[in-house]
Amino acid sequence: MARVPLLQMSGISLTFGGDPVFAGLDLVVQPGDRVALVGRNGSGKSTLMKVMAGLVEADAGTVIIPPGKSVGYMEQEPEMSGFDTLGDYATSDLEPGELYKVERAGEGLKFDPDRKVATASGGERRRAALAKLMAEAPDLMLLDEPTNHLDIQAIGWLENELKSTRSAFVLISHDRAFLRELSRATLWIDRGMVRRQEKGFDAFEVWRDQMWDEEDMQRHKLNRLIKAEARWAVEGISARRKRNQGRVRALQDLRAQRASQIKRQGTADMMFEAGQKSGRKVIEADSISKTFDGSVIVQNFSLKVQRGDRIAFVGPNGVGKTTLLKLLLGEIAPDSGTVKLGTNLDVAVFDQARAKLDPNLSLWDSLTNDPDMAVSGKADQVMVRGMPRHVVGYLKDFLFDEAQARAPVRSLSGGEKARLLLARLMARQSNLLVLDEPTNDLDVETLDLLQELLDNYDGTVLLVSHDRDFLDRVATMTIAMEGDGKAVVYAGGWSDYRSQRGSDDQKETAKSKGNRSKAKQKQAEKPGLSFTEQHRLKALPDEMKRTEAEIAKLETLMADPELFSREPVKFRKATEALVQRQQKLAAAEEEWLTLEEKAENAAS
User: Fold this and answer.
1) Same domain, 150 and 61
2) What is the tens place of the pLDDT at every residue in 470-507?
3) Pair (243, 111) in one structural domain
4) Within a domain: residue 77?
5) Strand pairing partners for 187?
6) What spatial distance separates the first Cα and last Cα of the chain, rounded to whole Å?
7) Do 418 and 552 lie in a common domain?
8) Domains held by the chain: number
9) What are the pLDDT digits (tens) for 314-338?
10) What is the secondary structure of 301-318 as a DSSP string?
């Protein structure tokens, strides 16, 4: 017996501002579906979800939900007027005997049901909306970026709940690890077309690239056919032969077909540019402690940050990650202990709360009114890494079109706001990047680019993120803040931390039984080196190997004798990148020799 769909969309068309979002869209969601909804920022993912939820009415087409079936949508900005507390809102549609479900979800998602709506932050409101949806457990759950504002522990709780739920769900998320764990099918929105693959997100990128390759091949064939037909038309005229009007019309049709094709959106032309090189020692914290409102943030914490480190800060929301960052940057003073900053530091900060974006300003004014970017006497230019640029041209580097330049910031999606903040951040040179939740709302392609930029950045990075996959791909060191002032340094990213944390727990158990050998532990360490230095000495050979591979790739590219005349901009960028990589390799080799010599001197 055929299953009855939970939701069926037929012939859906929708236009915003004169531009079609969807045209003739057909979509079915079946019981038990666990679907990842993916696509570039601004492609219409949230809009499609709102059409599915009945919150946005399509211009044409039908949305059918069978009688007796329920659909629930987690709102990004839930309407809570009329409710006194978050708990009142979350339990508003539950029977008295089901109220415990919100309490349980509240514990997992870490939201306080007694928090007054009037004083609740945007993140607390979203967690309440998610708890409400999880407690109601409709037949189909529509989840739009549910992991935003959740810490890693809460994300793990939500992951386990969704794995065990009987409800079907459609999920939008930037968190690759979350999507990989939960999805069994993928919906991909690309230029108004929605494709479905009966495989989870793990297979998405291979599928996407295959679709694009096929599209490029078809476009190439079409161009060749147009070229051949155009040559026939010209030769026919020059030879004064009677032209075949049918072939002329066919040529016109081919050109119209090419014109109607929607060009794929390119990759944002982002770059971090390191300014003057900082000293080798960037930050040195010695036995620092800090208490706020009776809560211990850190206790006797020490850390040495070396030039080139990529350090991640992880831990539950409210544990004090941002406070520790401010302590290390010298923005607030510790209660005890000392923090010393290195020389020539030029710090650039990505703001977690998006507080630097005025929602009522246009994108244009957001850049030109920034004192760090303003060009005196030029209202249409911004200063980008020491050079004036037209504001529209710079915005286009970040995938904003000319029409958006005059639109208010409030009209942007979360991912577009993140890109605008990155545009402001990347306009200045720096040698120390502080990134507080930079991955929220960014699409897969932009996350890939951001990771690549951080890999190639010739400076130091301090990173706060709950995106486990991103942490694994970027961090060379992880500081786990576990509460009650405990902050522990681990080598590597999130997975390395979890593995070492498990090993540490096993060691502590062995110690209590008398099975731990201190002699072996000392033999495993490099004498005379701090933990951070031991990690750097271990990591440097791989880092040098990667840099050598990048140099070889660039040298191969520049070996093309026609590159300069054919693509002068690409040649210039490749030349600059080659010089940077060579300098990076020389610095890494110098650092490795210094650390190895220090270890040998201490051992002798």
Assistant:
1) yes
2) 899 889 999 999 888 999 999 888 988 888 876 554 44
3) no
4) no
5) 37, 196
6) 79
7) no
8) 6
9) 998 888 898 999 999 999 999 999 9
10) EEEEEETT-EEEEE--TT
Residue owning tokens 């939008």: 172
Reported pTM: 0.67
**By C-alpha distance, which of 107, 104, 108 is closest to 160?**
108
- Whether residue 398 lies inside any domain: the answer is yes
For residue 32, give Cα distances in angstroms to 169, 179, 248, 538.
8, 16, 53, 47
- Are the C-beta atoms of residues 85 and 113 closer than 8 Å to each other? yes
- What is the identity of the amino acid at 246? G
**How far is it, in rounded angstroms, from Cα 211 to Cα 518?**
57
Domain, as residue range, for 418:
359-428
Q: Which helix (H) or strand (E) holds 128?
A: helix 122-136
With respect to residue 302, please indicate whether it lies within any of the assigned structural domains: yes
Inform me whether the pLDDT recorded for 409 exceeds 50: yes
Q: Would you say 457 and 430 are in contact if contact means Cβ atoms under 8 Å apart? A: no
| Rama region for 376: left / alpha / beta (φ>0; ψ in -120 to 50; rest) | beta
Residues 476 and 543 occupy one common structural domain? no
Pairing outcome for strands 34-39 and 185-190: parallel
Residue type, 517: S
Nearest Cα residue to 53 out of 120, 112, 140, 116: 140
511 and 448 in a single domain? The answer is: yes
- Which amino acid belongs to residue 114? D
CA atoms within 13 A on the CB side of 73: 16
| Domain match, 115 and 236 both | no
**Residue 251 CA: distances (Å) to CA of 230, 258, 259, 263:** 7, 11, 12, 21
1-25 burial code (b ≥16 CB/10 A, e <16): eeeebbbbbeebebeeeeeebbeeb
Q: State whether 242 and 382 are in the same domain.
A: no
Which residue, chain included where needed, has tokens 């019981």? 31
Q: Are residues 31 and 107 in the same domain?
A: no
